Amino acid sequence: MKQTRRDFVRVLFVASQAAVASRFLPVDLLGQSVQPPAGTLNFLVFGDWGRQGELDQREVAEQMGKAAQNLRARFVIAVGDNFYEDGVTSTTDDHWHKSFEDVYTARSLYVPWHVILGNHDYHGNCEAQLDYAKMSSRWHMPARYYVQSHVIDREITADFFYIDTTPMIKLYHRDNFAGGIHHNVRTQDVPKQLGWFRDALAASRAQWKIVIGHHPIYSGGEHGDTPELIQNILPLLHEHGVQAYFNGHDHDLQHLTAGDINLFCTGAGSSVRPTRQTPHTKFAKSRSGFTTVCLGPENMDIGMIDYQGNTLYSTSVSRTAGKKLKSFQSLEPA
After folding, report:
1. pTM for the model
2. CA distance 318 to 208
3. 16 contact partners, CB below 8 Å, separation of at least 6
4. I want to staple 50 with a disulfide (CB 3.0 to 4.6 A). Which of 83, 133, 216, 266 is the partner?
5. Are 228 and 119 contacting, i.e. CB atoms less than 8 angstroms apart?
6. Which residues lie below 8 Å from residue 212, measured CB to CB, with a gap of 6+?
7. pLDDT score for 177
8. Residue 321: pLDDT band by 50, 70, 90 thresholds?
9. pLDDT band at 15 (very low <50, low <70, confident <90, very high)
10. List of residues 6+ apart from 7 with CB closer than 8 A
11. Pairing of strands 253-258, 208-212
12. What domain count does the chain have?
């Protein structure tokens, strides 16, 4: 049958839309895009972002909107350093519009944002970020640390543990540390939080356990490893079968491993800094971007996307993390 011009245009349009969508979908080992599997919990993760739209923030936001739409993302996780350089002063600070409301405008991003605090947020009024959750339909921060549970199917659930790592870092408690952050971190009871975290992990019966913190455990970025987390957090992750830890702080995209635990640094929401390979590194790239996650009953598919929409890296993590880990780096611009 002869193809009409209208048919040709329709086919071309569908093909172009599929090409756009494919940049954000999981990628198999042959480098071919695949549809996200049915019955997955899909979401985005990113951090270190609030710069009033500058330094690639707006470009990253645009690609996040496209990815969230294509994946039908249920929520966004923001891993801290939400407002540079010094957090917010109140719930009416201009930052709320200039760095959040007026930047992440895609309809697909009007989903719950599950947020934690970073060290730059501690320069300002942390309570204002908690209070904003009472005024916003998408800003979700019920406490400085909290747990959220999600059902994947009838038998599989996932618990997300959001922790507040900034008060755990000894450097920030020094009187002479820049930004006067010591006044704010000293008000926090770190032993109480660690006790809560240990008990929450022990009480969880979820098959997937995922932890969200601002600071990295291991990292090849500018800040590098965090001794306090290696000492106090990492053993708990091992003890309680946590499969993945997501963080920011280092302004880059990384995948590292610590035994069977997968560590994903996604602190590239605006500006970036150099990164390097370490003994723990599986992938590292200094490029603005974010992370997509498709969490299914048996596997968690990860994609790291840059501010131009390129898939830089994909990996699939088994629920029995580490035993069936497979990863690869897709073709990317030089």
Report:
1. 0.87
2. 10
3. none
4. 83
5. no
6. 45, 77, 79, 114, 116, 160, 161, 162, 163, 245, 246, 247
7. 82
8. low
9. very low
10. none
11. unpaired
12. 1
- 85 prior amide bond cis, ω within 30: yes
Domain that holds residue 222: 32-328
Alpha helices in the chain (DSSP H): 5-22, 57-71, 95, 126-132, 182-185, 190-203, 227-232, 234-239
Instruction: Output the six-digit token pair for 106.
Output: 């895609």
Residue type, 33: S
pLDDT the model gives residue 59: 98
Domain holding 156: CATH number? Answer: 3.60.21.10
Paired sense of beta strands 208-212 and 157-162, if any: parallel
Neighbour tally for 66: CB within 10 Å: 17
Q: How many CB atoms lie within 10 A of CB 239?
A: 11
- Identify the H or E element spanning 255: strand 253-258
What region does 226 belong to: left with phi over 0, alpha with psi -120 to 50, or beta? beta
Residue 206 CB partners (closer than 8 Å, separation 6+)? 149, 157, 158, 159
d(CA 126, CA 124): 6
pLDDT per residue as tens digits for the range 30-42:
233 445 556 899 9
Give the rounded percent of residues in the chain with a pLDDT score beyond 70. 84
Q: Is 281 inside a domain boundary?
A: yes
Q: Does 91 reside within a domain?
A: yes
Q: Answer yes or no: is 17 within a domain.
A: no
The encoded tokens of residue 6 equal 């209208």
- Active-site annotation holder among 150, 173, 223, 240: 223
Q: Is residue 118 part of a domain?
A: yes
pLDDT, mean over the chain: 88
Percent composition of the chain: helix, strand, coil (DSSP 3-state, to 5): 30, 25, 50
Task: Report the distance separating Cα 174 and Cα 171, nearest Å.
Answer: 6
For residue 13, give every residue at least 6 positions away whose Cβ sits within 8 Å of its Cβ, in sequence order, or none: none
Residue 223 bears catalytic tag: yes
pLDDT at residue 296, rounded to an integer: 97
